[in-house]
Specification:
By secondary structure, this protein is mainly α. The chain has 6 helices and no strands. The chain has helices at about 10-30, 30-40, 50-55, 60-65, 70-80, 85-90. The longest helix has 21 residues, at about 10-30.
Length: about 100
């Protein structure tokens, strides 16, 4: 008998891991548009996409309430509250300097 996750949120994370794996496959075949669509809308997770997490839209109240979340540290460092989302979309849209990266990078 294996472990059965009782929390639906734990299942959501597992399902989003499937999205990450699928995006990795798309990138290896240079299907950047499909990878971007998968990132924005997701496929395996019924509740959230990877974009939602990158934009901190899943648990923003917890991050704001704590005042010392890892997210706020990175947002402060990069001087951009959507730094993760902007980086990911820049890569998937092949914006410079990522337009010269190989598909293995």
């Amino acid at each position: 008998a294996g472990y059965i996750a009782k929390s639906s949120f734990a299942r959501e994370f597992a399902n989003m891991d499937r999205d990450v794996l699928q995006i990795d496959i798309f990138l290896k075949f240079q299907a950047y548009g499909v990878a971007l669509d998968w990132y924005v809308h997701g496929w395996n997770s019924a509740m959230h996409s990877l974009r939602d997490f990158a934009k901190n839209e899943v648990v923003p109240a917890l991050s704001a309430a704590s005042g010392s979340s890892y997210y706020s540290v990175f947002a402060s460092y990069y001087e951009d509250a959507e730094f993760a989302h902007n980086l990911i979309t820049s890569i998937l849209e092949l914006m410079p300097p990522y337009n010269t990266a190989s598909s293995e990078q």
